[in-house]
Q: What sequence folds into this?
């Protein structure tokens, strides 16, 4: 069952690099990450790759396989022809540290800019009562394993470094939606979604949804409903009137 | 300090090593008590092994069955650990777990709900009542994300107050600690390197909390991630602390067996908790043949009774598929050995004939996904093939139950790296709650220790320099390939100190480990110090070999079978051995020393929570006489 596959793997650090050719053994049932590990053990001991659980649960081994953002641990070799050359490159939206490892600190900065869960005052731990149907919407978004592939694929920042300051990417717009839909969250999040996190940049091309390894419907269930909530508020005549009279923020 | 000129220096009150459930909970506590806290972790923030926990966190909230309470949970925990547990830890754990789970909810966690809107609880092996708070089968992810977001919330508070997110709590991600530093007998800091750049980092800190998890990467077939190289266990030993119970390793009964590249990946116990059954190649539900004497009264003896239990727990006994993990793992092992295994060397775990497809997808979404994507198996239509996988080490740093303090002043430990709580075998679901309960206690313990310190221990330059030399050594050498040495260690431990052990094999393993110890000193890593996995592995090998030696030496010494330690040559449980713990330490040299230590006697009000009949299965005659005295008075 075993065969030799041709791989091109991006190698380099400090802003420079190139695709390196490898011929490497592949066995039944293996995934791309197994092959990267075999390269480390036999041909390139210092080949850098992030990984952890190897079961699609931690979101560490995000990479681009033949140009598509994928988790290395969930991409089976059997999905390729045996004579196909497989090209593995780092995520394009984030600066490369070395080989397949990128600097994803952008994501952690954005996470920090979103005000945390804000329960109403006076509800003590143990007193929370929520219906299953009411938590399910946010639960879907909490399936996120933070592989950051949605942010990687999003065209707003993929080739537009300049947008990174004003755009938090699908991952964190979804986080805002998650909090906004949390039955006990009382913070006002809609204006910030639009003004500070760049919800308006999203033109719902659904690239994020397509690459999500957790199959979260990011666009349909998080981004579009958030846009609707923002719009409802902006164009609701009563809200408009209220804003005029009370100078609400 | 000339020799350490390219070493960054940071001052903290508390340094937490590890950012899984225990580490984050410890750090949150230390910061909430006003301590400047560093979290140092080998992976990115939010990727720790805790994300892989599936089933849930055990806490006797009584939301599903109001008869549940801390005493029932305490009893289940002690039974699961075959009465070898540190009873004080089991007591604190059972009492405090509900508060720790509720606290997560107040920090934004969204657990699955009961009909009346409370946190739902599910059945699990060894737990008398439905007890595990859960989110589908991704509870660990929910927990890590909630704690991660709590850390961020605290950073936001600090940003408000001090204008700096990292004024009081900072995460050093992709940073590995290689040595603890001491001033006399006290902790004075920690030394490590940035994985990204290879640059060195020095933490000047009077208190260190170890929360590094387990040791599974010393085995080939394991559910553990690469991070589980026993770092905390080894750091503690090297700093002069003791490890206990290292012979007890939990082989989770249900790991994937196929394809080979995913062998060992966990299949959650929730599959059985939610109705899944184990069958051999003859189609027989074989677990009925493996109910041990000590559990005879609690488990169903017929399929009919077992099946009724799912809907009527008051009038039926539990299915034997839900025996503690050690029992189920041994049973699967025996079935396969007897030639009744599945085609790919496991047994069948079937939920497809037990629940409707939609229900399976709702309750076990990540299992459905995992089998579909990795093995082309649709678990709603066909059985899974599963077999035992190295999952958890019960042994770890010997700590004070209340504060998490180790024998070395200033050193604390919580979670899997600590020992005692689970005795000889951990119940499923007791890990996530352990992380929360003892993470918080260790964080508080470290904070209190810092408050009481008269003077700050000093970092000694010569210790820093020798740590630096040690870390750099593999980079300059053209020695053995670290990947090969690692593989040999994994094979050795797997084959010779695995689920079933015998003296000759364990002795043979020790000889191999001795040789590997020498080879580890000579491994070489090609390439630069920048994000170099070969170099990182070369450094981790020191820890894996040291910890493996502890496991093997303790396993050789304990001449009985109990929980996660099964001796083919001593198949019975021996009450005399229950009174002894095996304590590993490093003498002056690098050889592991194992000594017997007497187990503390259980407090009167705790031991009297058990029936006399049950205790006779575990205690010596002498202890029973004492018990009768207590019971009378």
A:
């Amino acid at each position: 069952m075993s065969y030799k596959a041709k791989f091109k793997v991006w190698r380099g650090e400090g802003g420079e690099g190139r695709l390196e050719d490898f011929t490497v053994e592949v066995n039944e049932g293996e995934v791309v990450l197994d092959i990267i590990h075999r390269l480390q053990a036999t041909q390139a001991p210092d080949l850098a790759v992030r990984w952890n659980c190897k079961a699609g649960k931690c979101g560490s081994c995000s990479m681009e396989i033949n140009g598509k953002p994928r988790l290395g641990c969930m991409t089976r070799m059997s999905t390729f022809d045996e004579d196909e050359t497989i090209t593995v490159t780092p995520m394009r939206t984030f600066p490369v540290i070395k080989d397949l490892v990128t600097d994803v600190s952008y994501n952690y900065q954005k996470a920090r800019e979103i005000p945390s869960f804000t329960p109403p005052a006076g509800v003590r731990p143990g007193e929370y009562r929520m219906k299953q149907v009411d938590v399910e919407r946010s639960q879907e978004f909490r399936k996120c394993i933070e592989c950051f592939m949605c942010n990687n694929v999003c065209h707003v920042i993929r080739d537009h470094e300049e947008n990174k300051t004003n755009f938090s990417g699908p991952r964190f717009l979804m986080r805002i939606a998650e909090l906004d839909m949390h039955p006990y969250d009382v913070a006002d999040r809609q204006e910030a979604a639009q003004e500070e996190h760049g919800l308006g940049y999203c033109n719902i091309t659904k690239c994020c949804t397509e690459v999500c390894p957790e199959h979260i419907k990011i666009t349909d269930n998080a981004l579009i409903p958030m846009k609707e909530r923002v719009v409802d508020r902006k164009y609701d005549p009563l809200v408009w009137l209220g804003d005029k009279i009370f100078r609400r923020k | 300090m000339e020799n350490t000129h390219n070493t960054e220096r940071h001052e903290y009150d508390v340094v937490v090593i590890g950012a899984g459930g225990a580490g984050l909970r410890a750090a949150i506590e230390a910061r909430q008590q006003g301590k400047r806290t560093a979290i140092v972790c080998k992976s990115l923030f939010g990727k720790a092994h805790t994300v892989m926990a599936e089933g849930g966190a055990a806490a006797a909230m009584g939301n599903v069955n109001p008869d549940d309470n801390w005493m029932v949970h305490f009893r289940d925990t002690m039974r699961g650990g075959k009465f070898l547990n540190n009873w004080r830890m089991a007591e604190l754990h059972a009492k405090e777990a509900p508060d720790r789970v509720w606290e997560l909810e107040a920090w934004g966690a969204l657990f699955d709900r009961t009909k009346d809107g409370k946190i739902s609880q599910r059945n699990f092996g060894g737990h008398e009542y439905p007890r595990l708070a859960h989110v589908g089968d991704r509870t660990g992810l929910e927990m890590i994300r909630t704690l991660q977001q709590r850390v961020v919330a605290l950073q936001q508070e600090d940003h408000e107050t001090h204008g700096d997110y990292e004024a009081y709590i900072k995460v050093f991600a992709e940073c590995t600690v290689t040595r603890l530093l001491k001033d006399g007998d006290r902790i004075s800091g920690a030394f490590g390197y940035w994985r990204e750049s290879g640059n060195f980092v020095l933490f000047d800190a009077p208190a260190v909390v170890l929360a590094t998890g387990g040791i599974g990467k010393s085995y080939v077939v394991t559910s553990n991630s690469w991070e589980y190289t026993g770092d905390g266990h080894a750091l503690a030993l090297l700093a002069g602390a003791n490890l206990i119970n290292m012979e007890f390793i939990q082989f989770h009964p249900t790991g994937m067996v196929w394809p080979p590249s995913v062998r060992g990946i966990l299949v959650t116990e929730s599959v059985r908790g939610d109705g899944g059954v184990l069958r051999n190649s003859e189609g027989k539900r074989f677990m009925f043949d493996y109910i041990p004497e000590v559990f005879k009264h609690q488990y169903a003896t017929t399929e009919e009774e077992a099946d009724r239990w799912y809907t009527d727990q008051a009038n039926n006994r539990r299915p034997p598929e839900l025996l503690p993990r050690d029992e189920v793992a041994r049973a699967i092992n025996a079935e396969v050995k007897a030639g009744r295994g599945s085609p790919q060397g496991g047994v069948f775990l079937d939920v497809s004939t037990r629940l409707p497809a939609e229900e399976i997808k709702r309750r076990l979404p990540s299992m459905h996904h995992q089998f579909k994507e990795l093995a082309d198996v649709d678990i709603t239509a066909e059985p899974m093939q599963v077999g035992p996988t190295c999952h958890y080490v019960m042994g770890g740093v010997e700590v004070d139950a209340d504060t998490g303090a180790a024998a070395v002043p200033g050193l604390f430990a919580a979670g899997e790296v600590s020992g005692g709580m689970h005795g000889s075998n951990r119940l499923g679901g007791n890990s996530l709650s352990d992380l929360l309960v003892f993470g918080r206690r260790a964080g508080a313990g470290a904070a209190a220790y810092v408050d009481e310190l008269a003077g700050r221990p000093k970092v000694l330059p010569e210790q820093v320099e020798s740590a630096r030399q040690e870390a750099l050594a593999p980079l300059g050498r053209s020695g053995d390939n670290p990947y090969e040495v690692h593989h040999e260690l994994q094979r050795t431990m797997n084959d010779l100190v695995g689920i079933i052990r015998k003296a000759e094999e364990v002795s043979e393993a020790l000889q191999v480990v001795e040789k590997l110890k020498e080879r580890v000193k000579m491994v070489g890593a090609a390439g630069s110090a920048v994000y170099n996995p070969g170099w990182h592995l070369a450094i981790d090998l020191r820890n894996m070999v040291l910890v493996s030696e502890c496991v093997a030496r303790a396993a050789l010494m304990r001449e009985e079978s109990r929980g996660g330690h099964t001796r083919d040559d001593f198949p019975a449980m021996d009450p005399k051995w229950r009174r002894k713990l095996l304590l590993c330490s490093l003498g002056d040299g690098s050889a592991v020393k194992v000594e017997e230590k007497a187990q503390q006697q259980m407090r009167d009000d705790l031991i009297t929570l058990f029936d006399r009949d049950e205790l006779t299965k575990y205690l010596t005659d002498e202890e029973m006489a004492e018990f009768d005295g207590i019971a009378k008075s």
The longest helix of chain B spans residues 533-557. Chain B has 19 helices and 21 strands. Chain B touches chain A through 70 residues (CB under 8 Å).
